[in-house]
Design brief:
Layout lengths: L2 H13 L7 H14 L5 H9 L2 H11 L14 H24 L7 H28 L4 H10 L2 H8 L13 H18 L4 H12 L9 H11 L10 H4 L10 E2 L2 E2 H7 L1 H11 L2
Antiparallel strand pairs: 1-2
Helix pairs in contact: 1-9, 2-5, 3-5, 4-5, 4-14, 5-7, 6-7, 6-8, 6-11, 6-14, 7-10, 7-11, 8-9, 10-11
């Protein structure tokens, strides 16, 4: 079975709902569904989050990041963090844990390294997308951050299946970029119930070209990916494609260079990225 056939097989299974998730991911998906219940109130949400250490730690960390802690008052408990962030951000945090957990049961050391790098890339993209959206567009920063977190979810799922398909990523990532990313990505996004607006933004990321200033979430994602100091291990590197953040930062958006905007927002991006990496 060649790689393209394997990609099609995995995507077909995912499309039928036959996703192979480790137990810890299944538990987080149950938490995500519970938090999405309209009858889930603040006290119950805090109790549910507290029972999941990874979600709890990331919730408190994000609540204390510069992007959300505008008053400067530090929070040290889950209930206060949930109150500050709200349920939409809580859903984003739970999804981030699901995505990250996909790589934590991989046995192959090389694939585990790729998964860790991919998550670091996504954290940078999500934090940068949040800030760029709030600074440059009329869009919703929360949606942009969520899109940044899930934009490589197909890649995480692929890496989680490499124990079943040894050698799947040997010989480069061209087949993945051309075929597998879209087939598997669409199926996993659907299974996780990702909103259509976010799925559309990720679709435009796969097919789009850079637009400055960015107009849509898809534009923001593409820009944030190019600005990320950590490249995706499932795509060609900046050096190979000849583009990247260093070629962008001196471009002007209105009367301010992108470099100046990023410098002004450095603390927000840095602390939000760090919170997502907890």
């Amino acid at each position: 079975m060649d790689r393209l056939e394997i990609f099609r097989n995995i995507a077909s299974q995912a499309g039928r709902g036959e996703l192979v998730f480790p137990a810890n991911v299944s538990a987080s998906i149950k938490l995500q569904k519970a938090l999405a219940d309209p009858d889930c109130h603040l006290e119950l949400a805090a109790k549910l989050v507290t029972a999941e250490p990874l979600v709890a730690a990331r919730t408190v960390a994000i609540a204390n990041s510069a992007a959300y802690n505008r008053s400067g008052g530090e929070i040290n408990n889950v209930r206060a963090a949930v109150m500050r962030l709200g349920f939409r951000t809580l859903n984003t945090i739970t999804t981030s844990v699901i995505v990250r957990q996909l790589g934590r049961t991989i046995n192959n050391p090389g694939m585990r390294i790729k998964s860790a790098q991919l998550w670091e890339h996504c954290a940078h993209v999500a934090a940068t997308a949040y800030v760029l959206t709030s600074k440059l567009t009329n869009g919703d920063p929360e949606t942009a951050m969520f899109a940044g977190i899930v934009h490589e979810v197909g890649g995480f799922y692929l890496l989680s299946r490499t124990d079943d398909y040894p050698g799947l990523l040997e010989g480069g990532t061209e087949d993945w970029m051309e075929y597998g990313e879209k087939m598997i990505g669409r199926a996993v996004l659907k299974k996780l119930g990702v909103p259509q607006a976010v799925s559309d933004a990720i679709e435009s990321l796969w097919h789009g070209v850079r637009v400055l200033p960015p107009q849509t979430i898809g534009d923001v994602l593409l820009l944030a990916k190019e600005l990320s100091p950590v490249p995706s291990p499932l795509h060609r590197t900046v050096a190979e494609v000849g583009v990247g953040g260093d070629n962008l930062v001196d471009d002007y958006i209105g009367d301010q260079s992108l470099r100046e905007l990023l410098d002004d927002s450095e603390e927000q991006i840095r602390t939000l990225t760090a919170a997502l990496l907890v």
